[in-house]
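I am writing to request your help with a piece of structural work I have in hand. What I wish to show you is a protein chain and, alongside it, a tokenised description of its three-dimensional fold. Could you please explain, in whatever detail you think fit, how the structure tokens follow from the sequence? You will find the record immediately after this paragraph.
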Amino acid sequence: MQSSAQFLQPPATPLPSKQIQGTSVARTLSIPNQCSKFSRRELAIGTSSSLLLLLGSQAIEPLNLSRARADELPDKTEQEEPSRKVDYGSDQNVTKRAFLEVSVDGEPIGRIVIGLYGDSAPFGSSRFSNLVSGAAGVSYRRKEFVRIMPNYVQHGGLRSYGVDAELAKSTGRTMAMDNLVGEWEKQSEVYQGTKNVARSVSIIVRDPSKPPPKMKLVARGGKLEIDQEEVGKDVNGTEFTIALKDSPELDTSALVIGRVLEGMDVVERIGQVKTVKENTSSPYFRAAKLIGDKRAVVAERGFNRPYSKVKITNCGLME
């Protein structure tokens, strides 16, 4: 019986050492004495675990290799980073400096120093400097800011008729637009993006909305009546704006001639003055505007007008 049993059970032949060192599965299968102690279920579980470990080790190798290759490649996000936005005027040369001293209801609030771009906007900066210095026969002295918007403040400039026009004629000058429109068109073509950024000073060359009219007493038929003072249909190149924030809405009507160098706190103080609120959502206003009622036009021109008198008390050029 022993001989038959030995004949039925072949002697265990150990595997070569190279196969033993191959994998954990080979190590398990090369020791029959230990495997005989396990059931078929335990052997199957052990074999599956060993195969999973083998496959996992093979999968990790290419993953680590791909990570190493990725580390060697240049970072595209750094190369493709978009260029930083450069505000218009940051690279403009300041050729002259002008100052404006401002008061609110007679109380001085400070001085604004403006740098003019004589190289990029020669006609606009020349017009502004002549009006600030008084070389044009008239100046911005004692003239008011007429609109205060969330993004900018607007000065009313000089009138195209009356005393201002007569004084300008006495020096051989007129309120003609000269080359301001052409300069504005060139500026719009050459420079892309927003031109009227925060701190920008611009001359209005196109009328986005007419300034509010003033009321006056006139004699008609032996009676005094209140009538609306006539205003020029076109702008005369003397109104200017100072941007509190980036104001792309001004790019279609204003020529940038300079920027605020000092006194931006004074401009912000002007921007805080209370104004007439817009009432365009009122059904009465809409109906009046629709039928062309003159009162609606007058009311619209009064929107955003300051309740207080914001004046330039003194102005001029700086050495």
User: Anything to note?
Assistant: The chain has twelve helices and ten strands. Residues 218 and 225 are 5 Å apart (CA to CA). The first strand starts at residue 96 and ends at 104. The two ends are 127 Å apart (CA to CA).
